Amino acid sequence: MYAFASVLQQRGAAAQPMDQSMRIGLLTRLVRNPGWMLGLLCDVAGYGFQFVALGHGPIALVQPLLVSGLLFALPIGAAWAGRKLQPSDWVASVVVCAGLAVFLSVARPSSGRNDARPFVWVLMLASTAAAAVILVASSRGRGSRQRAVLLSGAAGIVYGAAAALTKTSSHLLDRGLLRVVDHWQPYMLLVAGIAGMVIAQSAFQAGSLDVSLPTMSVIDPVVSIVIGALAFRESLSSSSAAIAVEVIALAAMSVGVFVLARSKAMSTIQKPPPMSN
Question: What is the sign of the dihedral through the CA atoms of 162, 201, 68 and 130?
């Protein structure tokens, strides 16, 4: 679902004028685009599955699995462009799968808390917000590719924080709807969701999918793993050998993601359709 959403939303966002970047007005223009709206429906469906998954498993397990969305975006892009997958595409796909499998097998993420302490929430949300703001501010006046990378990084950070808010909100919902409306996390989740959407669409608008999607796909799980371990006390294998293997596996996965995003099968769908107004 997230793969469909990324492909459809990037095409719609890339066709919008740059003066709408980082504005709510960008979303109001995009909702008039049928293709983008279809992508939004895919986004909502994907988030529904993610919401349920985070209610049953640790953040450090669920969020890295979202990287597999790129493995679905690739054949979607190939079908859209009428291309066949190249040998390098298959190799990169295997590298992504292997890196993800090795990381999860070695790290063995286990569930921790369903909520964080108040001061931990404040520290986590303040630090992620500050990092996102710095990246957004740094993107101003940059070239299209640099701007896309910086905005995608900011979106990935916001989505990582949103995953933490989603996990807590999911467990609150298990205890009844009244528990949800009585806590602040669902409201902050709404704020984070809107902020992440605006930043992500601005990233799609600024540069092609081969720049924005892999950056977002890598930053989100890395931030989520850190938040899961530090804020929610999720345990990962922490021996010296395990940490070394985990870092190498994540690095291999990241390389595979960037190679896949630059595939010829993806390049054709990155050109936006001509604007109608």
Answer: negative
CA distances from 57 to 33, 60, 94, 165, 209 (A): 35, 8, 25, 14, 30
Cα separations (Å) of 144 from 14, 202, 271?
A: 11, 11, 14
How do residues 209-264 score in pLDDT, each as one tens digit?
677 778 888 899 999 999 999 999 998 888 899 999 999 999 999 898 888 877 77
What are the structure tokens assigned to 198, written together?
């605006």
| 134-184 confidence digits (pLDDT tens) | 999 999 888 888 888 899 999 999 999 999 999 999 988 887 777 788 889
pLDDT average, residue stretch 59-66: 91
pTM: 0.82
Q: State the Cα–Cα distance between residues 176 and 170, nearest whole angstrom.
A: 10
At 237, list the tokens.
Answer: 């294998």
Tell me if 231 sits within 8 A of 116, measured CB to CB: yes
Contact 195, 23 (CB under 8 A): no
DSSP string, 138-159: HHTT--HHHHHHHHHHHHHHHH
Which structure tokens are listed for 197? 């959407």
Collapsing DSSP to helix, strand or coil, 23 comes out as coil
Tell me, what's the pLDDT at 156?
93
